[in-house]
Amino acid sequence: MLNTLSQAFALITTWEVIVAMFAASVYGLVIGSLPGLSATMATALLVPVTFYLSPIAAIATIVAASTMAIFAGDIPGALLRIPGTPASAAYADEAYAMTRKGEAELALGAGVWFSAVGGIAGTLSLMILAPPLAEIALSFSTFEYFWLAFLGLMCATLVARSSPVKAIASMFIGLLVACIGIENPGGVPRFTFGITNLFGGIEPIPALVGVFAVAQVMRAMLTPEPPPIPKRKFGSIMAGQWRLTKKYNWQMTRGNIIGIIIGVLPGAGADMAAWVSYAMSKRFSKEPEKFGTGHVEGLVEAGASNNASIASGWVPSLLFGIPGDTIAAIAIGVLYMKGLNPGPTLFTEKASSMYAIYLMFIIANIIMIPLGIVMIRLASHVLRAPRSTVMPVIMLCCAVGSFAIGNNMFGVVTVATFGIIGYVMEENGYPVAAMVLGIVMGTMIEQSFVTSLIKSDGSVLPFFERPIAAILAAMAIGALIWPVLVWVWRKLRREPAAATASR
Amino acid sequence: MRLPDRVTGLFLVGLGAAAAYGGWQLPPVPGQPVGPNVFPLVIGTGLALCGLAIALGIGRSFEEEEHLIPVEGGQPEPPTSKLYGLRALLPPALLLLYVAIAERLGFILTAAMIVYVTSTALGARWKVALPLALLAPIGIHLIFSKLLRVPLPPGVLPMPW
């Protein structure tokens, strides 16, 4: 163990990793703090750059950029009432109310401090949870993998803040996209319409960039520019954070735990963690009436929660190749590209790389404190950059980045197409994250499904016979019929009420 | 681009049916009970069923209206003419234009054009858009071509490095 740890240290203390991590941190802070550019977009645009880095440096950039971007979303949320990333939306109102009360330093300080604490708690959960789960996962057959992937997809649809039917439809669209190409059980061209470029299938990364970056530029074309941030001087940012930590110790812990649980669930993610934690904080607070008036309690809990979910989201990604959220989905792509194929054996065969990932998460969360303070002080300059100068550069990065993935212009066509698809879907209430998970997991779910069917000679019974498979199946089917039950229950409850009203 | 649920739902029914039919047409693997046709068949059927449910308005009660945060002082209302909505198509159109002409014209010129048009469309005046269109492509070219060795098309205006 000590030997592996020292190997891991050696892996991350190269100049390449250090420089990559620092640059990615600054990049993540800037993108995360610009309203309208999400942490997922920041990570997706980073992928082409990771091609040219060593495996550890590539993962370091993803870890650093996503960690920083989730925190940086708090900055415009507090100063402008416009959350920089969706993960900060839950408490943007509260943080802005604090700024108006003259407590901007306290709100932003709480953002950076509790984000760092949450991130480290999430990393600890990754370190503690992953190895024993890997032990169990080693005994998994294709039946268990099928149900696990299915459960992952269902979780993604359950937590979407839209109609579950639309979320499931989005997921199916993603799976359908994953069907394209010749990588299927028969090795025949499927849904390629004779287009040679489609033989290799649709790459998840250009699809992601299209859905998250191009669609955002499209939206910017129609929405008015947010107002510029007022110039201001900040006092001490970390003052009073220790007092808050002691006062809200339990809230912080609860935020960490909820963040970890939501992160581990496939498909949920930082956004959901923040919303749930903020709601929990209000629900169990001793002074719920203060919420919404510039009260720091919810900020502590939700800020800790969204960063905790980032690290714990890597648990299912590393173990099963099932992403915890969209950022982890990108990370999986990078892991595959770099020969670190996700799976339980990663923990035995590439243990030092695993430890290197843990260490990078911890370092990223520690350097977030000084870098975050600098970013908060510079925020009034960075946030004054008008959208009309940021978006064109994003567009160029989309074009060049998607070309770089395969040195092929078809990547650019994919990005443009998925930009339109993502824009139309989002406008009509279809959650794009569910589609993205479908694209990422499609091949895996089909393989495990078809292999299992071949093994069972076409019978579905073996899908339920092994004990773990049966448990996973029950959970997955429960997730599938849950919305139906809720719907029936609501109908039944409403109907007697309507009957009494009409009487 | 906001369409009624009935329209998007029926579109998904069509898409799902087409996928299921397309999957069904695929040749099976000899001697094997399941082949490349099963998965599209399952997904297509599922998608068509979801589309039907959406068209019938099932599950709409779960939808939460997006919580828009009003900004103090109010925001200028965007114009609501029909043509205004088409502006959203500008970014993908520019990307397709890039595919069409970048090989011949070269990266720098194409990129400069994309930056200028996007920037102006987002409300920048030429005093901002023009220097940006000059500098951004060169910067991106430096990073991607020089540092990361992505082969960007030189076209009529190759960069000296």
How is the topology of this model organized?
The complex is a heterodimer of chains A (503) and B (161).
Chain A: H1 2-12, H2 15-33, H3 39-50, H4 55-72, H5 74-80, H6 92-100, H7 104-137, H8 142-158, H9 164-179, H10 204-222, H11 241-247, H12 249-264, H13 270-284, H14 297-312, H15 314-320, H16 326-337, H17 346-349, H18 351-382, H19 387-406, H20 410-427, H21 432-455, H22 467-502
Helix pairs in contact in A: 1-18, 2-3, 2-4, 2-18, 3-4, 3-10, 3-16, 3-19, 4-14, 4-16, 4-18, 5-6, 5-7, 6-7, 7-12, 7-14, 7-15, 7-18, 8-9, 8-21, 8-22, 9-21, 10-19, 10-20, 10-21, 12-13, 12-14, 13-14, 19-20
Chain B: H1 5-25, H2 38-55, H3 82-85, H4 90-105, H5 107-121, H6 126-147
What descriptive keywords fit this protein?
heterodimer; A: 503 residues; mainly alpha; 22 helices; 73% helix; globular; B: mainly alpha
Overview of this structure, please?
The complex is a heterodimer of chains A (503) and B (161). Chain A has 503 residues and is an all-alpha fold. Chain A contains 22 helices and no strands. In chain A, helix 2 (15-33) runs parallel beside helix 4 (55-72) and helix 12 (249-264) packs parallel to helix 14. Chain B is an all-alpha fold and 161 residues long. Chain B is 60% helix and 0% strand. Chain B contains six helices and no strands. Chain B has helices at 5-25, 38-55, 82-85, 90-105, 107-121, 126-147. Chain B is flat, with a radius of gyration of 24 Å. The interface between A and B is large, with 83 and 89 residues.
